[in-house]
Each structure stands twice: as structure tokens, then as C-alpha cells.
Design brief:
Order of helices and strands: HHHH
Structural class: mainly alpha
Helix content: 55-70%
Number of helices: 4
Number of domains: 1
Strand content: under 5%
Number of strands: 0
Shape: extended
Length: 89
Amino acid sequence: MTLHDHVERLLCLLTLAYVWCVLVGIFQACATKAHGRRAWSIVTLGLRTLVRTFARSLEHGKAEVLDLIGLLTPSQTLNSESVCMSTIR
């Protein structure tokens, strides 16, 4: 493998990890500061949740991990065009 292939794979992996952190962080409850913004970023919340879940999965089982992996699967829509068209109208 060339260096370009290694960098391409690493970039894909980092992108996937970032998206996963965002998807997990969106669903986390977070305190709000006085100025109205979140106390922690969505990425920080998602990363913290992923790390805690994987650490606990060794002790408590794999159900939580499977729920988080389910966030990476595409949504189950019947027709993607109907979703796009409904937002345009």
C-alpha cells in the first residue's frame, strides 16, 4: 500500500468516528449555560458516551453497544424521493 492509500483510509475512519460522535451526542441531554448555549459540545457528549458505553460493555453486555451501532444504519424510508419532495413543497 502506498502512503496515499493509508491516508485515505485513516481519513475515512476519522470521518466515520466524527459522524458517530455527532449522532450519539445529538440524543444526549445537556445542561444549558446562562447565555443559552450547551455546556458541552455535541461531539464531546457523543465521544464521552461512546467511551463509557464501550468500557461498560465488557462488564454489562453488548445491548447498549448494539443500540449505538444502530445509529449508523440508514433510516428505513420507503422512498427517499418522497421525503425530499415533501420538504420542497
